[in-house]
Amino acid sequence: MSAPVQQTPSRRVVGENVWLGGSTFAGKPKTLDALQVYDIKPEVLISEEAVGQAQLDEIEEYAAQRAGDIVLVLLGGRGAQAFYRIIGKLAESSKKDALLGRLHLFTQDGLAPLGMDSGLSFVRDFERLLGEAFFRKVKSFTSMRTDAHDLEGELERYIHKLESLGGIDIFLLGLGPEAEAASHLAYIKPGSGATAGDFAGLIPISSSILDHHIAKFKAGGSQVTDADERECRKATHILTLGPAAILEAKRIVQSIVDASTAPAKRASYRRVLETDLSKDPTKRAQQLDQNPGLWLRLHSNVRSLILSDVLDS
Fold first, then answer.
1. 4 domain residue, yes or no
2. Residue 102 sits in which domain range?
3. CA-to-CA distance for 195 and 255, rounded, in angstroms?
4. Residue 187 contacts by C-beta under 8 Å, 6 or more apart in sequence?
5. Closest by alpha carbon to 257, among 61, 51, 91, 32?
6. Average model confidence (pLDDT) for the chain?
7. Is 1 among the domain residues?
8. Backbone dihedral angles phi then psi of residue 234, each to the nearest 5 degrees
């Protein structure tokens, strides 16, 4: 039997943003008025470690409900670091070998160009937190190559790899603060023109993104050298998964644990919870483009894990 022919993803250019569509969404609603709006119910936990344990429990519950491999999109920054420490420690024994052996791991975004050995690379941070034993036992780990010469070609490769495994089972997400209490998911930025059919994108970088990226790595305990920071500040673009990847995922597990070091997240999160999404598709598209955190409101299976200070006024 011959291998299936890979189709070239659709390509849209919005200003300086390039968005690529996938092919796994045939038959899924693409128009915004066909997507139902859901409320997000925050689940307040007592500590960052409790959030990490809840993330592990969620993955184990999902694994128990079905056979076969599991595609998991990892979250950079603080939101999943406790989970990584927990599962990394367990990987040093044989307790979770059956689960680890079913996991296909993917990164969700990355600054580019950036050397893969940089202390500000998500890959190096995952290795630091999860450990060698963990990566020996998982089925696969696929990262966005932030040092690729052809960044669009890298995104196409990435889309094809995700699609070849049947799409995303569990997408770990955070919430990034933006001006005027807006927010970003992965690195879908306000005003980037992302739509429900866009699976991945290449977007220009801003100084605020660089500042946020460097700050969250330092706050999370990453070893960042002056050379790492200088290299990072030369990055020009971000590779990111897009709204279609979020909408296609079977489960979303959001976590926000760093309101103490990123207090702007409080207003951003509240705005996501409280915004009344318009039924008019044109107005809804404007709302989503102005505040990409709202894409979560269009997914039916979101678990939002937070600490109590996220809700402080």
1. no
2. 20-311
3. 23
4. 109, 176, 203, 209, 238, 240
5. 51
6. 91
7. no
8. -95, -5
The sign of the dihedral angle between the CA atoms of 65, 141, 89, 172 is negative
pLDDT per residue as tens digits for the range 165-219:
999 999 999 999 999 999 999 999 999 999 999 999 999 987 777 887 888 788 7
H or E segment at 10? none
* Residue 111 belongs to domain with CATH number: 3.40.50.1360
Q: What are phi and psi of 46, to 5 degrees?
A: -85, -20
Q: What is the pLDDT of residues 257-277, one digit of tens each?
A: 999 988 999 999 999 999 999
Residue carrying the six token digits 């975004």: 109
How many domains does the chain contain in total?
1
Does residue 137 form part of some domain?
yes
Q: What angle do CA 203, 201, 58 make, to 5 degrees?
A: 120
- Torsion angle of the four alpha carbons 186, 260, 306, 120, in this order, in degrees rounded to the nearest 10: 30
| Residue 12 belongs to a domain | no
Q: Which two tokens stand for residue 124?
A: 């190096």
Q: Taking a C-beta distance cutoff of 8 angstroms, is the pair 97, 63 a contact?
A: no
What does the alpha-carbon distance between residue 59 and residue 169 come to, in Å, rounded to a whole number?
9
Q: Which of 138, 150, 147, 178 shows the shortest CA–CA distance to 292? A: 178
CA distance 230 to 14: 29
Q: What is the pLDDT of residues 79-97, one digit of tens each?
A: 999 999 999 999 999 999 9
Cα–Cα distance, 47 to 53 (Å, whole number)? 10
Contact between 196 and 190 under an 8 Å Cβ cutoff? The reply is no
DSSP sequence for 147-182: T-S-HHHHHHHHHHHHHHTTS-SEEEE--EE-GGG-
